[in-house]
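USER:
I would value a second opinion on how I read folds in token form. Give me a protein, with the fold worked out from its sequence. Write it directly below this note and I will take it from there.

ASSISTANT:
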Amino acid sequence: MMMSIGAISWIIAFAAAMAGQPVEPAPAPAQAPDWAEQPTADMALLAAGGDPQPVAVRGEPAKTEPGIVEPDWAEVPTAHQIRAYFPPEAFARKVSGGAMIHCRVTAKGRASGCVVKSETPPGWGFGEAALRLAPGLRFRPQTRDGRPTDEGDVTVPINFTIHGTVVLDCAMDHGRARGCVAVEETPPDRGMGPVAAAFAEGRRPRGHGFSVRSGRLRWRLDTPAPIPQCAEGETRFPCGGPGSR
């Protein structure tokens, strides 16, 4: 089954977060999270705002002419590729971000003439980072009557996502987590608590990384930090850039 550019991009973002964590000593087995289910794409979508709708290839409803097949991914960028271009100060200060870029796709499937359409939060260099990554993107080119053309273009989100941990307190209902509330977030104030709580709702924990006492569940989850949505002119951290507080 072919996945859309938008849907794959969220999976890339989640994988990048996994690979982009600073190297730390491995936790003891009793602290390692485990799952009965592993819907990593679901958690990435929740971190991105919970909207599963893909981004249109041209940023608008498709109006493909007969005989034309629009570009699509040929090779999905790896987590390590995205980590290599993560803006250094944003990574050091645990700030997630992203950019929307528009590119021409050559007949050889290379991105060309890319421009930044938007980036958030502003001032952290996510747009520039996405442009630096763009030469490594690989697409299936547009085809006209089966022949590659230089006329295709794409609009794709490139997300750079910090990864942290959340400890949840939940009720247990027939072995499933219910009504979860975040009681600890690392790093703090990155909006990971609601993401983890929404992800855990109705799921069955198993293995390590959780405990149940008196009908209450404590569950430690690795969680992607949402990308901040900044209003125009907003100055609070991180929307005001590296100098904001």
